[in-house]
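Form 12-C: Joint structure prediction
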Amino acid sequence: MTLSASEIAEIMKLIDESSFDEFNLEMNGVKLQLRRSGRGRSAPAPETGAQVPAGEAPAPPVPGLPAGLSSAGGRDIPAPLLGTFYRAPKPGAAPFVDLGAQVEEDTVVGIIEVMKLMNTVRAGMRGIITEILAADGQLVEYGSPLMRVGAGG
Amino acid sequence: MPIRRLFIANRGEIAMRIIRTCRALGVESIIGVSAADRESLPARAADRAICIGPAHPAGSYLNPEAIVHAARASGADALHPGYGFLSERPRLAELCAAEGILFVGPTPAQLAVFGDKVRARAAAEAAGVPVVPGGEISTADEARALAERLGVPLLVKAAGGGGGRGIKCLTRPEELDALLQLASAEAGAAFGDARVYLERFVARARHVEVQILGDGCGNVVHLGERDCSVQRRYQKLIEETPAPGLPTQVRGALLESALRLAASVRYRGAGTVEFIYDVPREAYYFLEVNARLQVEHGVTEAATGIDLVAEQLAIAAGEGLRFGQAGIVLRGCAIECRVNAEDPEADFRPSPGRVTRAQWPQGEGVRVDTHIGAGADVPPFYDSLLGKVIVHGPDREAALRRLHGALAETWIEGVASNIGFQREVTADAEFRAGGVTTDFVAHFLERRPPGAGAARRAHA
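Section 2 - Result
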């Protein structure tokens, strides 16, 4: 059994929310090592050592793995659920956050509406908004990137 | 209004099955998948895949709001729920109606009646269809009186159960109170409905069911019966049509009963009326209605040549029934074997993982419904069905020969499967003779020599 990108992301989330600093998993030729690089949550970027079993085609590039570690070092805020994404509390109002905004874990960055039910989306990480990836009023799938967050603050 | 774009709210082999009909009809297919199924075959085969939620079904395949939101946002005119998950929940059908999306299935009211096994029994009785002796119980005294009348062994069933779930067997009268409490608590936790009812346990029973189609206006047809007596713990393993050796008058009465019940509620869509047939008494009783397409619908399609998914879409689109009873002819015999990712040598424990090799059978009279190829993931979150091998032949002997050939060329590696077990069962003299009862698999396992599957395991 191998792990899909979303499963790894899920495990990372669990580790991140737990008190463990290191996680090792070995099963049927898959070796997964996760380690917290720092003490605090401000530096959560973990090392991943996911290996593809020998002889198997490498997995296709996976968008958004894990929470969008990009080459620029930024991370993506994933949509926590499927729905229609809104950047502002109501039409015409100023957006919750804009490019260059400093966000904390609990900063509200948008709303996702599912069947008329409004769900608040929080950044879940610290940093500066470097890119807006989902447009206002757009259908966003579960896990699709909403905004990119760069280091800062 | 013809359906142009169909949203598929399901996964696995049934999603592939529905996509196939979409392609045949020129209907665009959109599938809502969980995060674990993004790379699955149906996600690739559909015209568009939308990730509706996390791997755990509670947030995805069991989330009607996310599903209907995705269906509406993607511009689908209709939604097919497949089987399992939300297929029989009135909530999904209601949400679709509220959003102007055609629900490919019965009305919410019909789903509510047949989803409640006590109300379903009452509907059957009202239509003059025999039900298993038993009934609902509300007090301990009532339960004791009814249990005494029925005698042991008897079954305690959850009103919110069905499909083999929420059933307990009582063998000692003195354990009635304790079992009722346990069954009720479990039913409350599992189905959100603590009501239970009692039924006589039919020891030598066959499971025979009738495929029906209704237009929602009172016109109904049947597409013959299926015998699903080869079960393990109420989960079907092999299904076939026609039911071998079923007395002609019993078969006729059974089909007639199914039509009467369906017509009495003006049933809409495809459904299955399940019966148990008490072999020594030559009596049949209504069990439940599965208000959806069933896993084993393929044997009926093989014998009738009718695409049931296409008929479901036609009914949903308001075209009604496109043939009368005289237009339905069952030819020959069709048998289906379910191939599951479960290990018969480890008490049929599910075996999720990655499939490294998948070889499915081909040839005349052989059909395979599957979503599994080499490299496919079998996530641990869902059922273990890998595929269905369906064979058709001019008679049962011919179909059995095809089945043996087909199973011999079926190989799954990377996860454990029950293919070897299915080869053994279908080669068994009692199964080959036809007309086994629902306790067949349990007895087969008892007399199976220890280590019978060892040769297969050595290969794995």
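Section 3 - Comments
Chain A touches chain B at residues 1-2, 4, 6-7, 10, 28, 56-57, 60, 81-84, 114-115, 117, 139, 141-144 (CB under 8 Å). Helices of chain A lie at 5-17, 65-68.
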